[in-house]
Amino acid sequence: MSDAAAPTGTTGDDPKPEPADSKNAVSTGAEAEHRATDSAPPMISMRAVDKHFGKLHVLRDINLEVPRGQVVIVLGPSGSGKSTLCRTINRLEPIDTGSIAVDGVPLPAEGKALAALRADVGMVFQSFNLFAHKTILENVSLAPVKVRKIKKEQARTRAMELLERVGIANQADKYPAQLSGGQQQRVAIARALAMNPKVMLFDEPTSALDPEMVNEVLDVMVSLAKEGMTMLVGTHEMGFARRAGDRVLFMADGAIVEDTDPETFFTTPKSERAKDFLGKILSH
Ligand SMILES: Nc1ncnc2c1ncn2[C@@H]1O[C@H](COP(=O)(O)OP(=O)(O)O)[C@@H](O)[C@H]1O
Ligand SMILES: [Mg+2]
């Protein structure tokens, strides 16, 4: 009797939606699970990360997920842990507790796996760190040959493309000391890009530069950001932070005190520490 409605369903009511709906209801859990495994992991993931230098607690319970393509600006007073945070992500600094993963892969402790991970995470330092006795072209093509096992000719061609992109192809045969700071830092960016990294970390990339050279480096970084590179940038360049950043992390005493979008951070900082920091930095 209860199924009387079905056989007499000649009134134009489509019987199909019902079974389809009930099928959905049954499989919702499985589908959600399927979707979760399908979707890409965050490019950088840090969970409950703590680190000490001796008695100094330099990273305090850091929890951070950076999605693919996001540009994260790390701000904070000197000594707040910005560099250390950056350096733990490619394991230049080991951590005490917690976990870090890059593109879903937990950081390997050592060996070949660690070398491979480092190749995926490009890093640009305040002090360019170029090889003084190698030409600009060699600086950019060396690691792809040694680490990525790319053929020398191919690596050189790619290096020239990258030097072109950062605007210094005409300096390819010179040595680092023959270039200005801004040019050297652009070489350092090209060198990092030569490994086709998934993530680029910048630790105060313009702090050692004369003021007139800051913009040529920031311009390269802005174009990288526009192309969708995932970036974590420790910087004091507030204009850049507002222009290129998707997100601001404000650090104090090793902790992430604020985590918000640049506009909110600069216009309505919540913590006293951030207000104090902005007061000092924006007043000159
Ligand atoms: N290798 C180290 N050994 C001991 N202490 C360190 C070392 N590196 C950094 N520190 C200390 O850790 C704290 C955080 O430093 P850092 O990450 O460089 O901060 P920031 O980049 O924000 O200026 C500072 O107090 C600094 O003196
Ligand atoms: Mg630093």
List its salient traits.
single chain; 284 residues; alpha/beta; 6-stranded mixed β-sheet; 4-stranded antiparallel β-sheet; 10 helices; 21% strand; globular; disordered N terminus; binds adenosine-5'-diphosphate; binds magnesium ion
Large-scale geometry: globular
- Give me the secondary-structure category: alpha/beta
Give the uncertain stretches in residue-range form. 1-37
Sheet with most strands: 6 strands, mixed
Distance between the termini: 84 Å
- Neighbour order of strands in the largest sheet: 6-7-8-3-9-10
Count the strands?
10
Q: Report the bound ligands by name, code or SMILES.
A: adenosine-5'-diphosphate, magnesium ion
Using only C-alpha atoms, the radius of gyration works out to 25 Å
Strand % is 15-25%
Q: What's the helix count?
A: 10
Q: Estimate the helix proportion, in percent.
A: 40-55%
* Strand and helix order: HEEEHEEHEHHHEHEHEEHH
Write the topology of this structure.
Layout: H1 17-38, E1 44-53, E2 56-66, E3 71-75, H2 82-89, E4 97-102, E5 105-106, H3 111-120, E6 121-124, H4 136-146, H5 152-165, H6 181-193, E7 199-203, H7 211-226, E8 230-234, H8 238-244, E9 247-252, E10 255-260, H9 262-267, H10 272-282
Parallel strand pairs: 3-8, 3-9, 6-7, 7-8
Antiparallel strand pairs: 1-2, 1-4, 4-5, 9-10
Describe this structure in words.
This protein is of the alpha/beta class and 284 residues long. It is 42% helix and 21% strand. The protein is built from ten helices and ten strands. It has a six-stranded mixed sheet, with helices on both faces. Strands 2-1-4-5 form a four-stranded antiparallel sheet, with helices on one face. Helix 4 (136-146) runs parallel beside helix 6 (181-193). The chain is globular and about 55 Å long. The relative contact order is 0.14. It binds adenosine-5'-diphosphate (ADP) and magnesium ion.
